[in-house]
Amino acid sequence: MAQEIDSIMSRISRHQGVEGILLFNLDGICIKSYNIFDEQKVKLCSTLCSDLCFRGKSIIKDFSNGKLEMIRIVTDLHEYMIVFERDYIMFTIYKQNDILSQK
Amino acid sequence: MDRKAELERKKAKLQALRDEKEKRRREKEEKDLQEAKAGAPSEKDTRKDLDEMLSSLGVAPVSEVLSSLSSVTSVTSDQSGQTPDASLQPTLNGQNTKAKKQQTLSVVQVQVTNIQPKENVTYTKQTQTTSSGTHELRDAHATDYYVLTFGDAQGDDEDHSLSHLDHGGFHSKLPPGILPHGLPTVKEVAPAITPQEQKKDDIKQVKELSEEQKQMIILSEDFQRFVLRSGRVMERALSETVDIYTDYIGGSESDEGLDEKSHARLSLNRIFYDDRWSKNRCVTSFDWSTHFPELMVASYHNNEELPNEPDGVVVVWNTKFKKQTPEDVFHCQSAVMSTCFAKFHPNLILGGTYSGQIVLWDNRVQKRTPIQRTPLSSTAHTHPVYCLSMVGTQNAHNVISISSDGRLCSWSLDMLSAPQDTLELQQKQPKPIAVTCMSFLHDEVNNFVLGSEDGYVHSASRHGNRSGIIETYEKHLGPVTGISTHQSHTTAEFSHLFLTSSIDWTIKLWSLKDTKPLYSFEDNSDYVMDVAWSPIHPSLFAAVDGSGRLDLWNLNQDTEVPTCSVVVEGAPALNRVSWTPSGLHVTIGDESGKIYVYDVADNVAQPRMDEWQRFGTTLHELKMNTNEDFEDLDKSMSIPQQPLSLTGSSVA
Q1: Inter-chain residue contact B237 with A70, CB threshold 8 Å
Q2: Could you tell me which residue ranges the Roadblock/LAMTOR2 domain spans (chain A) (predicted)?
Q3: Digit-coded pLDDT (tens) for B185-225
Q4: CATH number assigned to the domain with residue range A2-102, chosen from the 4 options 2.130.10.10, 3.30.450.30, 3.40.50.360, 3.40.190.10
Q5: Are strands B497-502 and B507-511 parallel, antiparallel or unpaired?
Q6: ipTM of this complex
Q7: B interface mutation test: which of A6, A14, A23 has the most B CBs within 10 A?
Q8: How many Å apart are CA A63 and CA A55, to the nearest integer?
């Protein structure tokens, strides 16, 4: 099964525009990283992301009765997609190409 | 630093304790040995052997004891040294069973060590970690004040896969200000000093998750489930490449491309193809989910190039998202010839295999192999199951399967170990029918039509006065490859109509009431492999043939020639055709595992208000044209007199 996970994750990471994927657990420890090789960056990502996730989750819990499922942060340079499952977090850095450049 | 010294002291104490224990153990052993020697048999030979053994035993421990004992006085060592001497001279003691040894007694210094009970530094997770469902009870002090903190939700505690890793002393405490998730519980505010201390601990311990632990997490089932599910969501998110920030002020509208598409009546939308699972496998059947109309299941035959891969593959595709990869893949050992969703159970998928087994997959379980199979016995099927469908209502439904030896079995999903009912479909001579395709009449549980290998088309019923074959229709000139009953939801007027396609290059339109076909479509120049009525349009159907052609026939417009026709790229032999439940797309499966989804232009796919009426007249005309018998003409003329006058002009 570990191979299957690897194949799924590598397939996603090879998707056009994906710059890197990180998998954390709830405490902010990075379990696996794809395409991101800078240790510092990984650690920074994980700590910042876990803070954000806790904040986000508590906001949603206060605001409505739902459970937080996904956060998408769009900046002028990148798009960050964070998907939540019960105990883990998947964080993807994505850069969408311009439509003009696509054609 | 204090702690280190303490630890050292404790270690020394432990060591001393261990030494004491060992010493006591050795002394015990010696005593036992002495008693054993004392009770030695009187025979000389055995005694000598014993003595040797004992001496060898006696010598060794004694030496060890001597070496380990640093603080014991020499007197004791002498004493212990004397005992082997005593053992070597058992005969001196005479023949008494209990040999009294002359032991020289001496005063032994008893070493007393006083070791305090080891302080177990325990801590409860409740106070020092965020994940706790209960709060510890503390005495309520007047000056304490209470703050709402959030403990973890109940369900998470059990499945927290990191709980076993917490023994290492890892705890996480959030920096003040951020509330952890969970149910609110009233908790005392901890004194001011501790959070800071723990924060320090926390920062140190973040990096402590070793490679081993990470590997353990990766292999845990929880993690795998997480990756599968979030991977799916992530793929979908990545595939929807709509850029919501495009700036239209600068350039022209990007909708021009869409207008062009709408002119083409049949255009390729997408191809479903998985390199690993559907390559080189012929598509054998399709089905659509009733619960989620965007889900489609396709079954595949075996891959001849890769005999080691499982023979039967069933893949669930999602037409809503642009993601190229399958939603779910299931496989089994035998090639799957027909598949269907369990209509009233959104999680189950059925497959009928080449071996005659009917297999059941469940997408809730993470297994890709079937969770249940029917037995391979003479009570069930022993021939390939080409036809599989679910009929009935939520509370009373059955799985109907027909194999190519003419046997029909009806099963209950709860019990797949034996069929509820079997029926042998035979023609008038007791010759079993080799059934290739079957279709239940619209909204019927009992009556269905089937096509066979020898070209005959039959209508049959499961129960009733005449169970079995009711009527046999005229032959096709070759095996019947596909059969489709009219699907009109609005009226039941046309539910007696069905279409068949055959290897004899024709498609025939039949009515249940006539043994002769109403019409025969002869436009194809290759084996016609499948035919399907549109679910929304009463006079539209699709047909595919072996030369890669997809035809759409609209009977109200033209009965001689298809309304639109397209040849699939590469002209592969197409095996199966099916309409999406919306009636706006056609999916076709070919022999190499690709599934093409074609868009049908609105003006073709959508029926207009008068389509049903027109179809009625078309049918009537078809009847008229085929009937050469004058009497029949008169009869048919007299009945629909009124509607003809209402509609007025004849429509070609």
Answers
A1: yes
A2: 7-94
A3: 666 665 555 555 555 544 444 556 677 888 887 888 888 88
A4: 3.30.450.30
A5: antiparallel
A6: 0.73
A7: A23
A8: 12
